[in-house]
Design brief:
single chain, 340 residues, alpha/beta, 7-stranded mixed beta sheet, two-stranded parallel sheet, 10 helices, globular
């Protein structure tokens, strides 16, 4: 019986044997240990019993399944019968705890419609580059659910996040367990060489913290570090456009003095926050669209191009313009912020 979770070296590294002698595995959504299984679809009446009896039996069976799944989940956590990679990614935790918490928000609150997910390769490394908005980076969380639930290969999305996310209590731990890491070139390149799908939001705090009056207008894409990582590893860049995130917390102002006191990049003021306290922190239920564009190949470039400022600028601008034009198209098709 293992006492400590096994560590999975990232794919593509020279050392492939995890501590404890175990072998790295990828958990699928069909894993029978799912802690929060989906409720079964309404089935046609069986040969015997009333509809009330059938509903009661279905509820009883669902509860029993949940109890068994919860017990199995706790057993594996207590005994250390799960695996963690070199970045702290814990697939057992992500699949059984984190993603089930996000799915109701994805499916019922924002009613996210995913398009072009097949443009993300079924295997091998890829870099998803997306616009960033919404005061709180919920767009990254929704994109990660889209990848796991809608991609044919059910691929996890390894987001590259700001340092602040990993410095915050609880948030940093959960982010690591969910598979995310620092937005720096060494980590990005290691993930991409390991065959993972990584995601970056080049606008950073400028994007999520911009005022509502500038919604869907992309901010500057930094210095193009994501392009350098893609060129060095030869993986495709997949532009991703997200519509709906701008309206969840319409930022109409900010309290700069309070932000400096708390060490935050900004302290937002919305029509509901901070006036209504915690109630004002509930995001508005806008209708979301997440569209993945056609991949932009980088394996046709030389590795030396990663050091060429002109190549970096042109490719960065191409990705940015692709995302911006897709946003305009999606907005033109949208009839209503909340109904879609």
């Amino acid at each position: 019986m293992n006492e400590v979770a096994k560590v999975i070296p990232l794919r593509g590294e020279s050392a492939r044997t995890p501590r404890g002698g175990g072998r790295g595995i990828r958990l699928e959504r069909s894993d029978p240990t799912l802690l929060f299984p989906r409720a079964p679809d309404a089935a046609a009446p069986s040969s015997g019993g009333s509809v009330t009896d059938q509903v009661r039996d279905a509820a009883r069976n669902l509860l029993a399944d949940q109890v068994v799944a919860a017990a199995e989940f706790l057993r594996r956590r207590i005994t250390g019968d799960y695996e963690v990679d070199d970045f702290g990614y814990d697939p057992h935790f992500a699949e059984n705890v984190w993603l089930p918490l996000l799915r109701p928000v994805f499916e019922s609150w924002f009613r996210v419609e995913v398009r072009g997910i097949e443009n993300v390769p079924a295997e091998g490394g890829a870099l998803v580059v997306a616009n960033h908005a919404g005061v709180i980076p919920i767009d990254g969380l929704m994109t990660s659910v889209a990848m796991v639930d809608h991609h044919p290969a059910k691929r996890p999305l390894r987001m590259l996040a700001a340092d602040m996310a990993f410095e915050m209590p609880v948030v940093g731990t959960v982010a690591r367990k969910a598979g995310h890491t620092l937005a720096c070139n060494p980590d990005a390149e290691r993930l991409l060489r390991g065959g993972e799908v990584a995601a970056v939001f080049p606008e950073g705090f400028k994007g999520i913290g911009k005022p509502f009056s500038e919604r869907y207008k992309l901010q500057r894409f930094g210095r193009g570090g994501f392009v350098s990582a893609a060129l060095r590893t030869g993986v495709p860049i997949v532009p991703c456009s997200i519509v709906g995130s701008e309206e969840i917390y319409p930022k109409i102002g900010e309290l700069k003095s309070l932000a400096r006191l708390l060490g935050l990049p900004y302290f937002p003021v919305t029509p509901l926050f901070p006036h209504f306290g915690l109630l004002g922190m509930i995001p508005l239920p806008s209708k979301w669209y997440i569209e993945f564009g056609e991949p932009i190949r980088t394996d046709t470039y030389d590795v030396a191009d990663a050091e060429d400022p002109m190549v970096m600028f042109e490719l960065t601008d191409h990705v940015r313009e692709t995302i911006q034009q897709t946003l305009y198209r999606l907005l033109a098709q949208r009839r209503n912020v909340f109904m879609g």
